[in-house]
Structure formats: C-alpha cells, structure tokens
Amino acid sequence: MTSTTAPRTIPLVDLSQFEQGDKTQRQAFINQLGEAFHDIGFVGVTGHGISKDLIDDFYVAAKKFFALPVETKRKYEVAGAAGQRGYTSFGKEHAKQSQVADLKEFFQIGQELNDTSDSAYQKNPHVEEVPAFMDLGMQLYRAFEASGNSLLRAIALYLGLDEQYFGEQTSDGMSILRAIHYPPITQEPKSAIRAEQHEDINLITLLVGASAGGLELQNAAGEWQEIVPENDEIVINVGDMLQRLTNNYLRSTTHRVVNPPRSEWDKPRLSIPFFLHPRPDMKLDVLPSTVTAERPQAYAPITAGEYLDERLREIGLKK
After folding, report:
1. What is the mean pLDDT of the chain?
2. Which CATH number fits domain 12-314: 3.40.50.970, 2.60.120.330, 2.60.40.10, 3.20.20.140?
3. Can you give the residue ranges of the Fe2OG dioxygenase domain (predicted)?
4. Where in the chain are the domains?
5. Which of 146-160, 199-213, 214-228 has the highest mean pLDDT?
6. Long-range contact list for 126-132, CB < 8 A, 24+ apart?
7. How far is CA 140 from the centre of its chain?
8. Residues 150-200: pLDDT tens digits?
C-alpha cells in the first residue's frame, strides 16, 4: 500500500546552513528565508537546534497544568498583566475583528530579568502543582529566543541592514512563550472556531508542532491552505511589527486554527507558539529602504510598546 503525502504549502529551510554553513550556504539561506517571508509570510525551519526532548517534556507539563481544576488554574491569573503573564481562562481572547471568543485557554511565560525594578517585566507565577512547568518553560523560552534571534539576523541581512540590527532591539525583549489548550468541543460552537483568523502582533512567531492539526494560512488568492509540519520542523511566520517595519514588503499573513471534524471533537489540541517581541522602546518607523513609488509609506511612526498596547486592547486582553 503506497502512502501519499499532502503537498507542502510553505517552503522548508535549514537554519544550520546559516549558523554553520560557508558563505554560499549562508547567502542561499538568507535568500530563501527572505523570499518566503516576502511571498508567503510563512516558512518551515529545520536545523534549529531546539531539543525535541525539551519540547516533549514541556508538552507533558503543560498538559498536567491544563488538566488542573479551573479554580486552581485561576490562581495563576495575574491581575493587571493583560494576559502577558500567567493563565488566561477560556473564552477571554478574540480576534480583533470578532466579538466571539476563541475556543481556548492559555498560559503565558514572559521575559525574566535579573533587575526586577522595571514594571514592564512582571515576574512569572510559579505553578506549585506542576513544579516542572515553569522550569521547562523558561528553558524552552531561551531556546526559542536564540533560534528566533538567528532568524532575525538572516532577515536583517536580507533587508540590507547590519546583521545585529534586531539583536540590539530584542535583547531583553518582551517575547512571550504561550502554551495554548483547546479543550474538547462538547457542543455546537456559536460560530466560534478554535482560533479565528488573525495576524500576529510581534516581529516573528515560532511554533512547534501542535498535538493536532487545524492550522491554516490564507494565501494571496484568499484560499485557506492547511499547514502540516513534519518531524522536528518549526513553523515561522511574520508578525505585524515586522510587516510594519518593512512597509508591507514582508507579509504578516492571516491564519487561523479551525475546528476538527465532528468525529474528533473529543480530542483536545495543545500548541506552543513563541512570539518574539522587541523591547518596548523599539521604533517601528518604516525602513526608508522599503519605501518606493509603487509602495509608498503605509504607516505612521510608533514604538513597539505603544503598538502592543493598542493591539492588546483590540483583542480583549487589556481594558
């Protein structure tokens, strides 16, 4: 019996070519990554160096956390954090154009600094019931941060910038590791899906394979295409901050997580995205090199912190 594999909807690149390759391999990677972000806004990445055991162990710890009683999980909702630290209960977040809440709950782990005097960097709550959850989460956070910064070095070179352009802005950045739990669907949803169509806020998002399918991107023709990661592949997509900075040259592509077939409603879904953010004071002013006669300047100057604040209000996490 022969098996058929679905055709890929996003290109696949190998980050080790950039990190360990010769000059030709590095340039090939830079071109492939940049073209994927320009044409599609999504790319699959192998050779990223993030330990599969670490990912697997964090999945196990996250499952244990989400299996706790609701009243226990709510102990870890952090007042005034706008969902940027700790637990956010089911039905709170929605896409900016929708008033119907997504079918999910999540836990967010944010940047931790040795200097705790900056109020923008609240401490992450430690989950007493699952001690490994935060320890593994911070290890995974650092691994994602390293790989994400490598990808941004390649993008900087693709854009003709200094290789460290983003590194200077993302050191101690406001990145978020989010563990998302989509519970089993127990009744006909009121027009809601697991995650309504949206674009991400940040510079780039790194997503390790989810425990179930459902991720789709909207292509240039307006068609929805399923993304099916393979093996140890991480899915990377452009966020609105990078799109804004590059005057729409790099694409923040609309995507969603659809509900499974009714026969699989009893299956929960767990996914782990890492939203790579710069420091709040980074200027998202359009890069002059990306402004052309065909693509006039599309955005007014704003800082990353101001933009994040605006978007958190739009999606219902900040009042």
Report:
1. 87
2. 2.60.120.330
3. 170-278
4. 12-314
5. 146-160
6. 127/65, 127/76, 129/64, 129/65, 129/68, 129/72, 130/61, 130/64, 130/65, 130/68, 132/57, 132/61
7. 13
8. 999 999 999 999 999 999 899 999 999 999 998 876 666 665 555 678 899
